[in-house]
Fold this protein.
Amino acid sequence: MANELSEVQKSLIGKQNKKGQTYTDPHHLFFEAPRTPAFYTGSEVIKEAIRRASVDVMVAYPITPQSEAAALIGELYAEGYVAEYMRGESEFAVMGQCAGAAFGGARVFTTTAGPGTMRAMENFPMWVGSRLPIQMIVTCRGINSPLSIQPDTLEMYFLLGTGMLVWHAETAQDFFDWMLKGYIVSEQPDVHLPLALCCDGFFVTHTKDTVMLTPQEMCLPPYDPYRSPVVCMDMECPPVRMMRDPFVMKSNYISYMTHASWQEETRAACERSRKHTIPLIGGLIETENTDADILVVASGTAVSQGREAIRLLADEGIRVGLVKVKSLRPFPFEELREATKNAKHIFVPEFNVIGWLAQELKAALPNNHRIVSGPHVAGGMTMPAEVIAEEIQKSLGRHVETLAGRGS
Amino acid sequence: MSKEKIKICPEFFDIMPPEYRDLVEQSTYGNEDRGWKDIGNSKELIEAHSLCAGCPESMAFRYILASLPNPEDTVMVGSTGCTSLVFPMVAVHNIHSLFGNQNAVASGLKRALTVRFPDRIKDVVVLAGDGATVDIGLDMTLQAWFRQEKFTTICFDNELYANTGGQESGLMRKGFVAKMAPVGKKFEKVRLPEIARESGCCYVVNLTVSKPSLVEKVIKNAVLLAREVGPTYIQMYTPCILEIGKNSMEGLQEMRDSEKPGERFNYKEYITDEAKQYLADIDKKKKAAAITAAQPAAK
């Protein structure tokens, strides 16, 4: 498999950490180790994944709906599963503290949401350019005014251009598996990028679900900072003067080219993550019945609602296929083109007002008149399966009992 | 990092860049008595710089780098500004990430290095301008002190935003006319040294860089105290000769003028009793070691 470990990491496999957990080969941990069911909230699942992730440093800050998860990692620190834990003073500072810890060679974890993601935004392209494989859980919530704490995925739109890996989990099970697998992908020398692992706040964080957990006494091998494609800032390798003239002050082609090529390289690194991600999470997309004329393409919990809508429509004799988009960066262009090649109508339900996934699809797919951007809900509204089913039926010219009368 | 790590295979010695050969042959790594007097022949940490001719900041950089007690295990954190033009030429691992977040980065860095190297000393030193330290980054500067993060914060105070062309900053004198202060700055110079003392720094010094021996002593104290006792803060006047209308050779005089009694940069030091005791203990140990070394071996 492509996800190789360094010699240092390999030498630790089978040995125990101070909590008595055994450093386990990731492939074995993910695919062969026995799993036991647990009935947990999304926040508790985050805790259980981090318990097994050999994290060195976690920086926390309160913001709904990620506060519970961030505090639960504090319990892991108190128990000795996480080496260092602190509360920062704002998300901007938190992401700086995460950067400092990652520059210093630590495996770093943090969580944020909504306005916190926006406040911290300046850090994310910096993490990417500095090649810091930090994992950040984003429990999406509204960023509009007036103040909202409700689920809304608008913030993800802003993350798409940062250069980070951006994945969108549908369920707590996705979350548990992808957090552990995410570190393995992020830390590959030819990737070495931060991962924004997003979920829909409350819907995933605050609901209970049955999750198949790996054994508590197995954990990932620790991060090896000397696999980084850039120097670890610990003064353990000879320092060099990087350049005679810093590029920031030069207005010349060499300077521009340096910046441009590094941006290209970080984007290329994101694309290179595919070969590590695809075998680990089973492809960047998942499909069902893509030979149908009608498809629902969605990410996050919109997938779950889409799946229910497809069931409702099946009862009406309408056959609809499903595409679950798991990774937004890298964006699965080829996979989506292939999966949608038979579709005459493509519906994109989303929990945000602008419909960013539909925008992405319209830019990526041929004959994009096939794409219906919607239905959309926002500001914390739920998206009943009936709303999706109704949108599809209306587009087909069918008369439907509208749900619009619900309030009367 | 030990000096062993920087050695070059003899066959390749002659093709290595001269800076690297200097580093191997003349490095002061591991020399506890390294100091500003080494500046002439030990250029491993800094040689060229891209600042204006005569910029006092370039002197400050040399004195500080010459005074670090443990450069082979020191990581520096900078910020955006004139200092970020020098750091690419400094041969100590250094981090530039964003403008104003230097003390947040240093907090994470110091904690990570402590986790990774529990049995070794890894010094972290922040060096940033006054805009980064006091204006945009004030929150993170203070919060690091409240949390008692164990690293040194050095502020190069040139009393304005130099790199962007001389705009008003919080550390600018009241009444000074500058860009963005078109009729003169309307409020007093922020009293960060006093704020630093109240925020939990165990050692705070306000000075100019006119006297290299003094800078050396202060930097050594600040770094040693930050290891064990608590956060330390050094504010240094590094006038921007360009923006205050001085010539290249006038920087030193400008510093001497502003450190006179009653002036803004008259030497000022706050030190806690615990910090005093810690320095006295170090001194005592050094003296005892010197006496032992001077005595002929007993039979």
